[in-house]
Amino acid sequence: MDNEELYRQTMALWGEQAQYDQAVEECAELCAALMHYRREKVAPQQVIDELADVTLMIGQLTWMFGADRVGEAVERKRAKLEQLMAKESSKKG
Asked: Rounded to an integer, what distance in angstroms lies between the CA atom of residue 85 and that of residue 90?
């Protein structure tokens, strides 16, 4: 099954609101795993597993909101990050 079919099936089974809630939950679990990892309370694999869950939810949300629209926003944010990095580099350099 490809990702698009997976996303369609999750929407059909659980609905849009549940997928928003699931995305929030997965992001919170990743945040918690990262904090625990920083304090050496969990192994890297736990962070990787949570990152995988978030990656799947990002794919689902991207599909739900439209890959083109998300891609455009990513490009805008990337350009902003590059400008910020250039500004910071010039301060150090």
From this structure: 9
CA distance 11 to 84: 38
Positions of the chain with pLDDT under 50: none
Q: How many domains is the chain partitioned into structurally?
A: 1
Distance CA 47, CA 8 (A): 27
DSSP string, 42-80: S-HHHHHHHHHHHHHHHHHHHHHH-HHHHHHHHHHHHHH
Tokens of 73: 């926003």
Q: Two tokens at 78?
A: 């990337």
pTM assigned to the model: 0.89
Three-state DSSP class for 35? helix
